[in-house]
From TrEMBL:
Record protein name field: THH1/TOM1/TOM3 domain-containing protein
Pfam families tied to this protein: Solute_trans_a
Its membrane topology: Multi-pass membrane protein
Record keywords, A-Z: Membrane, Transmembrane, Transmembrane helix
Organism this protein belongs to: Picocystis salinarum
A GO cellular-component term linked to this record: membrane
Superkingdom assignment: Eukaryota
Subcellular localization, as worded in the UniProt entry: Membrane
Transmembrane segments annotated in the record for this chain: 65-93, 100-116, 136-154, 161-182, 194-218, 230-247
Amino acid sequence: AEAVATSGDRSGRKSEEEDMGGLVFLEEASGLVPAGLCSLATQGVAGYSIHRHLSNYTEPRIQRYMIRIILMVPLYSMSSFFSLAFPSIAFYLTTIRSCYEAYVLYNFMSLCLYYVGGPNDLVMHWETDDAQVPLSYLWCTCCLVNLKLNGVFLRRIVQGVLQFVIVKLVLTVAALVLELAGGYQDGSWSFTHGYLYVTIFYNVSIAVALYALVIFYLAAEPYLRPQRPLLKFIMVKSVIFVTYWQSLLLSL
């Protein structure tokens, strides 16, 4: 019986070691060094871009928004690296990063509005040109046939984006409280833990915000075209959306 128990203990330890294999790899130099080098490279590129903006600070309003958006890159890389190096603080680093996501969405919306001369000028363009949102199955705008582009529409779009800022702050506070109380359990899909409910609310909120940005871009694209913001739009959406879903899939 003692031999069987010993064998069982060894099997249990072996299974536990196998489960922790990925974590051990990340804690070793073989995992941290490549991650650190990638993080440094990312910060170098972002730092150079920010330096160029500050050295040629000729359009303060525009460049202010751009610098805030670019800062998302080093923040993401540093939070990812330190989360790998110190798993015990990963939750708090991810929380800070997520809050900055909301701030980036707000700044991107403000940047686009500034590109078109402000809300009043954009509404005037819409009314003068009798503009319509292009109908597309790809962008889920096929049902917006009778949508009027006016001040009310723009207000709803801005509200759709800004609600994510508010919801994200509320969810952050809720997650922190639950984590300190032991009821959050990051990565747990149990109905008894807060992670599931925070994730659901987060997904609904960010989906509304990103869809509002898509509708806004389609409606304002003719007036934004000289500024060529499409690549910025795609990158902002990709960084926020893809990184979040990556972390979500890894938690499964």
